[in-house]
Amino acid sequence: MNNTAASPMASATSSSGRSTGKSVSFATELQSMMYSLGDARRPLHETAVLVEDVVHTQLINLLQQAAEVSQLRGARVITPEDLLFLMRKDKKKLRRLLKYMFIRDYKSKIVKGIDEDDLLEDKLSGSNNANKRQKIAQDFLNSIDQTGELLAMFEDDEIDEVKQERMERAERQTRIMDSAQYAEFCESRQLSFSKKASKFRDWLDCSSMEIKPNVVAMEILAYLAYETVAQLVDLALLVRQDMVTKAGDPFSHAISATFIQYHNSAESTAACGVEAHGNAIQPCHIREAIRRYSHKIGPLSPFTILALLPRLECGDMILAHCDICLPDSNSSPAKPLK
Amino acid sequence: MEEEETYLELYLNQCAAQDGLAPPRSPLFSPVVPYDMYILNASNPETAFNSNPEVKETCGGFSSVDLSFLPDELTQEDKNQPVIGSKHETEENSESQSRLPSPSDIGLGSNSPSLSNPHSQQHPSDTDSVQASPEKPDSNSLPLASITPMTPVTSVSECCGIVPQLQNIVSTVNLACKLDLKKIALHAKNAEYNPKRFAAVIMRIREPRTTALIFSSGKMVCTGARSEEQSRLAARKYARVVQKLGFPARFLDFKIQNMVGSCDVKFPIRLEGLVLTHQQFSSYEPELFPGLIYRMVKPRIVLLIFVSGKVVLTGAKERSEICEAFENIYPILKGFKKA
Of the four listed, A89, A204, B1, B218, which is most buried by Cβ atoms within 10 Å? Predict the structure, then answer.
């Protein structure tokens, strides 16, 4: 792990030190993405490279498993059903994925109705496209659901704790920005793997695979890649906050990362620009996060963040609950990060 | 006043007679109503109207006009009398007639003739009561039930004169005769017909600049117009073209299905704050779409709000819905202005 992270640190784009000599690198995009997810204004390049490595390994694993599932079915393309099948055990993550698919359908429907030409295009291509992702998901989950748990997720309206925490963090981050910074932040937020679909395909080396994913499956993979980056940033922020020793507060370990960040930014708004590098997530934070959450799997098997999410969710939820119980920042004895 | 009460009773009887229809007051005025329930309730009176025109003539028409606009400014009035919800719709309807700015009036004025057109003999009383109400000065003093408004009360002047511009109107009309699409495509100018691709003729006219999809059943969809009158005029022109080709085309059930408007609030908006405080109405996934999708419940409009301050409103059946939706969202957006 240390070796693979250390070698490509020197050059920006070369990745010959890594797995298959791929020439496509998402490092610069990842830096913007990490900024939009809560990292400092200029995330470190080494961190981005490490995150890219982790995400790449995860996705290749996932693709291979999905290819095996398709082969079992005797199909020639990887379909979204295969990916849903792989994720069936993790309800929270699956629910988030389903919500994303529905929002995607809904957005297509709305945006289509706005422009007259789009409306005609839609009618001409046949109106079966409406809610297609929702239909795919519903039909498939219907077919594999034995206990009714999976179908119950469609009606489930619980608040997604992790997503809530991310939204709050983004809101705090943007509150102190001026319009120019905010415009830049918005642009960073709009970056995603699905916007660079062809580069994404090359990055995953899809052309050399026997069974390739179809369009909707690629959308899901792009979303899962983004989710992995987001989870890594969440965990790294947690680790970073834990690393700071706070004197005199017995409950400091229970304070969540978002709380500390708020406290910190409220006190040092002027110093934000200067501390841009000081506050950036370091590769050691990422490595520590991975180490912490992979110890349950075992030293020899490759860790999978995607499969580990039940544990991650529990951790975040507990911390999020602690956040609610804490007194407000004025009376808190916690020291700011330095 | 008397005739309004009889219409009110008829309407309430109709509502009570329908199974599974919640009382009109609760879904309309509760702030956190599930989106689906609202759609169900709002559409039911209209379907009842369409299916039993001769029985529910006046009250059915009333419901399809009333439920669409209920300006929030009326909630500042006296609220002590627990009168049933739809009565206020009639009063508020009269209020809105007298208070809304002129573009909405024009819109309303053109809508009521269009409503009365297919059922002309049934609605003289409907349009009369709607148009006669501005003359009643005491409508302001009528008490309202305890309505809980979803959004803060706004007055018209708070929007600083920004009026949403209509960009696109989709309407449908029934020509009421079977059509031979091949013949139409051969003889009409600016008509395309590709049966393998789509089972309708696509016709375009230059003034008003619109596109129509004409189906062999006689139904037609007209899109691209920028106002209600233009949409109606364009639909009539298409109908005339079809008529001139020898088909006995009529002009039945002209209905505006969707209106899209847009405007600019002229300041940047902090969408992260908006999505956090209005979670149950908004979804913001910037990696998917750069705008925030806000589903307003009352009126049932979808707004796309962008960081630049541009707002697109869609899903309206009447111009007043767009204006009202914008009036509702403007103070909220001001609260999230990015300095």
Answer: A204
